Structures are given as structure tokens and as C-alpha cells.
Amino acid sequence: MRRTAKLGMLVWAIACGCGVPQMFWGDSVPDPPPILFSPGPAPVVAKTPALPQCASSQAPLEQRGDARSRAAAQRGLDFLARDTVEWQREHQCYGCHVQAVTLEAMVVGRRHHYRVQPTDLAEVLRGMTELPGGAHGPVGFSVGDSPSHLYDSSQNFGGAALASYDELDGSNLSDALVATAERLLPFQEEHGGQKASESRLPIGAGALQATMQAAQTWRQAYARTADERWLVPIAKAEAYLRGEAKRLQAEPTANLQHVNYALLGLHAAGAHANDGAVAGLRRSLLARQNQDGGWGFAPGEASDAFATGQTLYVIKRLGADDREPAVARGMAWLVERQGEDGSWSADGSRRGEAMWGVLGLVSVDVASLSIAGLEDGQHLAQAPTLQGNAVANGDRPVESLEFRIDDVPVARVCGGATLTHRLDPSALPPGRHHVDLVAINAARQQSRARIEFFTGDHFLTQEASHFEGGTTHLTWRNVAPADLRGAVKVEIREQVEQAGQWTSGPVVHTAVLPATPGPMRHAWSGAPGHRYAAHLEFVDDRGQRRHQVMLPFVHDTAEAQRRNFAAVEGELQLMDGESAANAEVELVDDQGRVVQKVKTTRSGRYRFKNVDAGQYEVRVKRQGFKEEKAKIEAAPASSSKADLKLELH
User: Fold this and answer.
1) Please, what are the domains in the chain?
2) Of 24, 154, 310, 531, whose CB count within 10 A is highest?
């Protein structure tokens, strides 16, 4: 039965935190060296290139972008804040999507320099945490103060909102985020999807939406704690989402929300825009755009602010430029149909429409940025020429435009809309890297676009281990290009202590797995309490060994590992306070031997686990930055912390 936009959203639902009906929107590998981690080649230390200093007088006043969309986004944010705060004061409870989606719109807006009243943000956060059903209640997010049939949905909506807040705005609720991430684990089914009690479209979209929200929550819990245990449920969730993506591509009449949630979930799990599953679904979204520029929930259905805003938000999360024709037409549809009060409807659907309509618009920053010459997730074989472009969306022109490679400024233009730079992959060590295009306007407001890429033979990432039910579960991501086929060989060696250091002993287990795109998993049971190291090797279809990583682990419960060993953790920042993501951190013992290596998360966090008691040094050597180090002492059943800041050469 065909559903009109208004009737489809005029639904009765139980507010998650209130329990009263309300109308709302709802061969074997050669032995490794005797120490676990060899230092490897020293990073190239080069001073930051001399770049021009930009003054506001150099900014061209004629550069103008989409000020109209920003004005509409601000009106929508104002309406959403008023409406949500009013609803919360009336009902005095946590209401799932009411506060959750509003909070996400607020923090995205704040990141993109929109005006959000501190009192409104504080009130929404109070509803998310302190009111009945909030995160700080006895059972976390819930209906009232006890679990109910909507308990999983309460946790899902709340966790995803806290994840966005923690990533974009503040870390003061990270404990609540991690606690919510923990509560979501029992709802994950064996196939990787989440149980979902709320599947009444459009309020809830069942397992797809729940899995997406859980993946967002776990991903930010990992980013904030650097605890690799969160990578295991993420990998399971991604496997489920990939299966659903394949099904949705073969189903042209699939509900638009399902397509959007599958894409958001894959993105949260770590899939890049050039991933086949992501690219295929994205194409199907664009093909379903109506002639008027909007989207409907079903093919041929009239355009709707909820569907249009949500789809725009998804496409732009995947890297779309504001000026891409489909995006520009969609934003124009929202702007032209917005009411004077900032909403898109005058009936019971207005809150839901405004939530997603605003999210579709607040992704327009003070400057619209685009990067050509490089795809997100691309493996570089040649040296591409990057072209960055910026257009100011308002009366404050772009003052400087800059490329940064792994946080090192490499090119800058003053008062220009276009910047080019030749990216030489041979100057970078093999691995994962990122390029940022950063625009600063005359008011010193910053806009940023980031693309991740890979150099050299680097195909296995995000390796993790987690002990559960007597089994160690190993997970990793295969990010090899689609045309590179092969297998991943798993070899587990027992670790033996000799002369105060752990060395590789006999091989106790081997397995060969076809190299499938995305998450890969392998389970193994060994001797409880013993140390092992999993050697993962990518072998191409010609038998050539292309990439190897090593993952040390202790085959024992998490409680036993925490009791018997120490942890060393901390945060790595740049001098401007931004997080230093994807930086390698080494743990060095008192003999100068590197005993562990890890990479920082997107929030700049690192963590070494199963560390023996003793004196250590945490050391960071990153290309383009001065070496930083800190002394720490590790003791069993405790965690030592060392925060560091990186200074450019």
C-alpha cells in the first residue's frame, strides 16, 4: 500500500523513557627476531616546508557558496532545540530518538560553526543522562528505571547519540558511552546483527538500524579507550551488514531507511567509500532521487523531508561534496519547503522531519571543501596530483587553504579557492595515512575534509583478540584492493621467556583463509594463561607473501589478564589540541627493546595490554614531528598513563 509522507509519519508510539502514548517521530613463516617487535627503519625526519603566512586582506570577497542552506540549517536547529526542550520539560524523561537525534544534530551543528545555545545543549544532555530512563540511571538507557521490551532500542539510540557527542564535541560522558557499549553486547546475535524490539517504520527500522547504532557506539568506545576488544563485535556487525547490503542491492524496492542504515553501519565499521559494498548502495541511493530533488521512502513515493535529509546526511558522511548535483538539488528541496518556524510540517510528524532535515543541512560547513585526485581507501601505486577546492558559505571568505599529510602541512595558498599538491607515496612508509584539506576563514573558523589512503603492501589492519567462552577470537580487516586476490595464513606460535624477553617458540596452530574483503575472523583454543603470538600473512594468488602483521595475546579471561598484567595507555595530541590519529606508539623496556607497538585511534588514544611489571618508556617517532617520550612504571592489576603532544619539526 502506497504511503504518503505525512500519513507515513503520523504514528503513535511509546516514548522510550516515559511509557505514555505520544505522537512523535520517531609453508611456515620464517622465525621472527628474538624480540617481539623490531624497531624497523627510522622515520624520515624532515622539517616542515616553509609555507606562506596568510592575512585576511588576501581573501577574495567574491568567493561565495551556499549561504541559503546554512541559514535554513540554523532555522531548523533553532526549531529543533525549542521543540525538544519543550517536549522534555513536559514529559521529564528520556525519550529515545527525541533527544538522541536532536543531540546528534546539535553536535554536528556545533562542529560546523552553527549557533547552538549552551542552555539548550545542557538541557538535552540532562535528558540523556539524569532524567528517568537516562544513561546515569540504574540500568542505563531504558523505559523508566528498569529494562522493558524497548530496552534494546533505548540503549541503541542513546549509545549512537553519545558516540556522536564524544567524537565531535566533548569526552565528559565517555564513561556513559563505554557503559552503554557494554550493555549492547548481549543483544548481538551470532550472525552479527542486533536484536531489535522496535521495527515500526519510520520510528524504528529493525535489526539494520539497531546494528548500525551499535556499530557507531562500539566504534567510538574503541576510539576513546583504544581497547581492541570493541573491534571484535564491530567485525561481526560488519559481516552482517555486508550480507544485508548485498541483499538490498538486489532489491530495488527496498525501504530507503534500510539502505541508509546499512550504509551508515558500514561506514561506522570502517568501510571506505571505495569499498564495493558501499559504492554499490550509494549508487542505488542516487538512482532513487526524485525529479524534484528530494527522496521518498519507497521508489516513486513523494519526496519527504525525513527521507531527503537522512539520505543527504548519509551521502555526505561518505564524502560527497556540497556542490555535487544530487546533493545540491536535495538541499535546495529542503530549503524551498522549510516553514518559517524552521520545521517542514505542522502536524505530529514535524519533530521527526526536522531531526533528519536538519542533519541533512548542518553538514554544510562555513566552507564547502572537495578533494580530487584521490579516493577514500585507495591504495597508491603512482603519485597523484591532489586538487583541493574551497568555497565560503557566507560573508566570511576563505583566508587560507592547506593540505596536510598525516597532520604535517605540505602546501598552502592564501586567499585562493584552489590548491594543488603532488602526493609521492614513496616518501611515506607502507601503511595507512590520511590527507586533510583545511580551510580557515576570516573569522578563524576552520573547515576540514579528510581522506584515508594506503601506501605499499599494507592489506591487514585493525587486528584484535578477545577471549570468550574458552576461545580466543582473532579479528582483522582485509583492505586489499578488489583486484588483488589471495589468502590470509594464520600461524599461532607459543611465546617463551628467555633472558628476560619473550621470543617465539613452536608453532601450535595454522590455518589458511580465503582473503575476503572487510572483516575476517578466526577462533582458536589453546592452553589457558599462556602467551601466544598470531602471525597473519597476506599471500597473493601467485604465492607471493605481501604483508605480515603480528598480534601477541594471552589466552585467558579478560579478568585474569587485568589481574596478572599491567596496562599502559594515554592520549596523543597535536600542539593545536587536535587528536593525532593513526600515529605509531612504541613501548620500550629498560634494556631499550621495543616490546609492543600500537597505532592511535581516531581520538588519539593508545593502549598496551598484558604488560609485565617494570620500568618502560612510551615513545613516538612520527615523520615530520619531533620525537616524544615519557617514562612510566607498570604494575599488575593497574593502568599507567602517559599523555603526549607532538610538535612539528
Assistant:
1) 460-560 (2.60.40.10), 565-646 (2.60.40.10)
2) 154
